[in-house]
Amino acid sequence: MLRKKIILSLLAVLLIMPPAAFAQEFVGGLRKVTGSGTIIRGGQQIIAKDGIRIKMGDKLITGPNGALGVIFTDNTRISLGSDSEIKIDDYIFQPDQGTFSFLTELVQGTASYISGTIGKLSPKSVRFKTPTAVVGVRGTSFLVKATPKK
Amino acid sequence: MHIFSRLLPAFFITVLLFGCADQKIKPSPAEGKDLFVLLPDQNGKVGEITISNKAGSTTLSEANESAQVTSNNITTRTEILSDRDIQENFHDTLQAIPGTADQYILFFSSGTIKLTRESQKQLPLILKRIKERLPCEISIIGHSDTEAGSEYNLSLALKRAIHVKDKLLSIGAPRKLLEVSSHGENDPMIPTKDDVAEPQNRRVEIFIR
Fold first, then answer.
1. How many CB atoms lie within 10 A of CB A5?
2. 3-state class of B20 per DSSP?
3. Which of the 8 DSSP states describes residue B55?
4. Could you tell me the residue range of the domain that residue B44 belongs to?
5. Which residues on chain A are in Cβ contact (under 8 Å) with B45?
6. Which tens digits make up the pLDDT trace of A43-94?
């Protein structure tokens, strides 16, 4: 009886979990990588190279001569200049359910952002954080440069 | 950096003109400062960004309009930057922007997963483009018109996308790169009222990026 209950509740959990938890493992991929760059994923370091896929929660870091671009599954494009760091805090792209979220955080350096489908279908779901402020986006492209505290 | 130093004289003049009233605007040297620049998109269209923090918010809505922000101050005074200023600050960042995704749209007969003859012919071209763009990722997204129920359409659109995936696999596309999803009737090419048959909305979009 107890075992049955456990199995049932496990099944319930599986049913409740959004399918995206399985389907959307990768949220985008790296392009135009030059110089040195690193992905930090769960404490592990991965050397940045064209074609490497990225996941939610990844931290992307470029070195003094590095730069890289990311194209997300919704066609949003973000790039980083040298000595920069960005975190992909949240990314949900489920147009069939009408659920969207896109939260990126520039920790330091320079970045560019070009809207994709999330920005088109649900602009209010897009948030781009910097050390001093949060940017809300309406279907467009912008640049940010964060000058760190002296 | 150059922008900041160029702005400095203007800043001092402002302080002279407005005296103490503006003194709190001066960022203390210990404070981080961010520069935001709004750009037109690739079609020349300019959207809008709103920058906010505890000090307030400001909106940029013109091409190359910029604002400098610290945690304690959001300026309402914005400046249009020259292309040279932008290049000076963002050259390497701009160079690293990934290319736009290639988009293909395939159409279907009403209520079916049967590709139109024209769309069928595009499949080899799509495969060729995939190979040219490697390393790349491919999204195959099914859509329907609004005729019939939304659940039915969600599943019909998914079947369409899977059908296109199978077609691409059969001519040699790399399985690992193909991702299928369905937007059902939620993302029409031509917006319509509910229960409208619209051939342009019965489609599968393929993005190669």
1. 9
2. helix
3. T
4. 2-95
5. 139-140
6. 999 999 999 999 999 999 999 999 999 999 999 999 999 999 999 999 999 8
A14: in domain: no
Does residue A36 sit at the B interface (CB-CB below 8 Å)? no
- Domain shared by B54 and B87, yes or no: yes
Structurally, chain A folds into a number of domains equal to 1
Compare all CA atoms of chain B with the CA of A28 and give the residue at the minimum distance. B137
**Yes or no, beta carbons of A77 and B37 under 8 Å apart:** no
State which H helix or E strand residue B88 sits in. Answer: helix B83-95
Give the chain A residue whose CA is nearest to the CA of B56: A133
Angle between helices B2-18 and B83-95 (to 10 degrees): 140
B181 in A contact zone (CB under 8 Å): yes
The range of the structural domain enclosing residue A71 comes to 27-146
C-alpha to C-alpha distance for B7 and A104, rounded to whole angstroms: 29
* Amino acid occupying residue B46: V
B156 part of contact set with chain A, CB < 8 Å? no
Question: Cα distance from A3 to chain B (closest Cα, Å)?
Answer: 34
Of B63, B95, B127, the last residue of a domain is: B95
Give the nearest chain B residue to A73 (CA atoms). B139
- The CATH number that applies at residue B187 is 3.30.1330.60
Q: Which of B95, B122, B143 is the last residue of a domain?
A: B95
pLDDT digits (tens, 9 = 90+) for B117-162: 999 999 999 999 999 999 899 999 999 999 989 999 999 999 999 9
Write the pLDDT tens digit of every residue in A83-138.
999 999 999 998 888 899 999 999 999 999 999 999 988 999 999 999 999 999 98
Query: What number is the ipTM of this complex?
Result: 0.83
pLDDT 10s digits, B33-79? 999 999 998 888 999 999 999 999 999 999 999 999 999 988 878 99
Calculate helix-pair angle for B150-170, B117-133, nearest 10 degrees. Answer: 60
Top residue of A55, A73, A105, A141 to mutate, by most chain B CBs within 10 Å, is A141
